[in-house]
């Protein structure tokens, strides 16, 4: 990784300092500044960390300029076409695709661990009716630590905890919906896939059995695979940063869920639908929303557009656009919001503002429409994202705890406040 002959020279206060150049397996390069402050007294200033590599990682490769995304080297397109979500989760977490035996064992464990402690139901019942499902999910995941034993750093126990979490997040999500609707909680069937089981647990009832449709299961599988990891994004960085204080896995994942909730991140899928609804209610005038998004004095942004890393079309959005189209076709449904989405996309993509800033639709632009067609309530869209992202968070957390040089994350700052100031007693203040 480090080439002793390649260095970057920094000239500062009349002195020169050499810093090693680090190269990743795909040729991407970084300056290793671990010794910068000790040697020069300087720190770097990089708000939003757009130029900062916080770790090395062998999990996911993405190239925002060329629109490439691969998990453990395998292109996302191949996984979306051929893999199951369980295989993808296993690949991310354990580093290679599972053998048949490994997959069978993993599937059985996912079914075995799916019930949650009966007392957790009381938590659900005590949230106010309009509580956001992401707030509920992050609290419930955090509380799992109290119900299930502390994780020792033994590989086998970690494996159990990780599988338990992947299984229980599905139960918790479906359960929160059922309880909020006043319906009976449904547990998974061992004969169904992870994705089919989720739909079964969400929508099946004794009064009205849910008919599983292949196209719906397929769409959900693809969505969850596409969401499964995205290297050091905001929520994953939250998991790593919080985890670096050596909190337990549940607490670290709970912080990831909270970060994902934000509309600039995983909450964007909900925000996209709300925006499309607003356009529809306003008579379908996409142009006026595009104009608002361009106005520097208006904080409104086109939700589902733009990405910190992709400066070309999000490769996940390319796949999602097609999946979404096929899903609606298979369900024999038309959705006025999909038509508005298409028009909005076309309007923005030929607008100089969006062209010059490399702003393209991201995955969230299409997932919301697919979730709507599946019957998922809008405020649960970010929860759907969280279930998909869980294997990635876990893989990144595992990678960090296994790093022998794992350090507490502690960025620094450039202070811009007042210089030393004397305390003013209260009766002398004006
Ligand atoms: N609508 C209008 N203008 C935008 C948008 C947008 N969606 N996104 C970026 N811009 C503009 C900014 O105003 C800025 O313009 P300026 O140069 O005139 O100041 C320029 O493009 C660069 O924007 P930044 O905010 O600096 O870009 P950054 O990389 O930090 O932002 C982000 C990425 C947060 C995703 C942004 O594009 C955004 O807010 N998008 C909408 C929310 C969204 O869809 N989030 C989901 C992201 S994908 C995911 O998390 C799964």
Automatic annotation (TrEMBL):
Active site positions, chain numbering: 307, 364
InterPro entries recorded: Citrate_synth-like_lrg_a-sub, Citrate_synth-like_sm_a-sub, Citrate_synthase, Citrate_synthase_AS, Citrate_synthase_bac-typ, Citrate_synthase_sf, Citrate_synthase_typ-I
GO cellular component: cytoplasm
Pathway, per record: Carbohydrate metabolism; tricarboxylic acid cycle; isocitrate from oxaloacetate: step 1/2
Reactions catalysed according to its record: oxaloacetate + acetyl-CoA + H2O = citrate + CoA + H(+)
GO aspect biological process, one term: tricarboxylic acid cycle
Swiss-Prot/TrEMBL keywords: Acyltransferase, Transferase, Tricarboxylic acid cycle
Family listed: Belongs to the citrate synthase family.
Protein name as catalogued: Citrate synthase
Organism: Desulforapulum autotrophicum (strain ATCC 43914 / DSM 3382 / VKM B-1955 / HRM2)
Lineage: Bacteria, Pseudomonadati, Thermodesulfobacteriota, Desulfobacteria, Desulfobacterales
Gene this protein is translated from: gltA3
């Amino acid at each position: 990784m480090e080439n002793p002959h390649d260095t970057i020279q920094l000239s500062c206060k009349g002195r020169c300092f050499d810093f090693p150049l680090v190269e990743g397996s795909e040729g991407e390069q970084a300056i290793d500044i671990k010794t910068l402050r000790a040697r020069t007294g300087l720190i770097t200033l990089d708000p939003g960390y757009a130029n900062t590599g916080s770790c090395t990682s062998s999990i996911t490769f993405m190239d925002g300029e060329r629109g490439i995304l691969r998990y453990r080297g395998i292109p996302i397109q191949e996984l979306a076409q051929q893999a199951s979500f369980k295989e993808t989760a296993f690949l991310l977490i354990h580093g290679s695709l599972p053998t048949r035996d490994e997959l069978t064992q993993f599937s059985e464990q996912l079914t075995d661990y799916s019930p949650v402690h009966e007392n957790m139901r009381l938590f659900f019942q005590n949230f106010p009716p309009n509580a956001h499902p992401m707030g509920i999910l992050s609290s419930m995941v955090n509380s799992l630590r109290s119900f299930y034993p502390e994780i020792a750093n033994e590989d086998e126990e970690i494996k159990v905890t990780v599988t338990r979490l992947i299984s229980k997040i599905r139960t918790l999500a479906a359960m929160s919906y059922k309880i909020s609707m006043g319906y009976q909680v449904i547990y998974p069937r061992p004969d169904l896939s992870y994705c089919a089981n989720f739909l079964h647990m969400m929508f099946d009832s004794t009064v009205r059995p849910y008919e599983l449709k292949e196209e719906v299961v397929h769409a959900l599988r693809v969505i969850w695979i596409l969401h499964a990891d995205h290297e050091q994004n905001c929520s994953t960085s939250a998991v790593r940063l919080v985890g670096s204080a050596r909190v337990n896995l549940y607490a670290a994942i709970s912080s990831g869920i909270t970060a994902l909730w934000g509309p600039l991140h995983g909450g964007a899928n909900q925000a996209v639908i709300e925006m499309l609804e607003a356009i529809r209610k306003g008579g379908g005038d996409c142009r006026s929303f595009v104009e608002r998004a361009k106005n520097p004095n208006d904080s409104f942004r086109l939700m589902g557009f733009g990405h910190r890393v992709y400066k070309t079309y999000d490769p996940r959005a390319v796949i999602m656009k097609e999946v979404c189209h096929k899903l609606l076709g298979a369900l024999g449904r038309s959705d006025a919001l999909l038509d508005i989405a298409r028009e909005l996309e076309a309007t923005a993509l030929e607008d100089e503002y969006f062209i010059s800033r490399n702003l393209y639709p991201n995955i969230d632009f299409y997932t919301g429409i697919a979730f709507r067609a599946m019957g998922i309530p809008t405020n649960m869209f970010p929860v759907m994202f969280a279930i998909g992202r869980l294997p990635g968070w876990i893989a990144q957390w595992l990678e960090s705890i296994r790093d022998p040089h794992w350090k507490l994350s502690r960025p620094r700052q450039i202070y811009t406040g007042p210089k030393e100031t004397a305390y003013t007693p209260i009766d002398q203040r004006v």
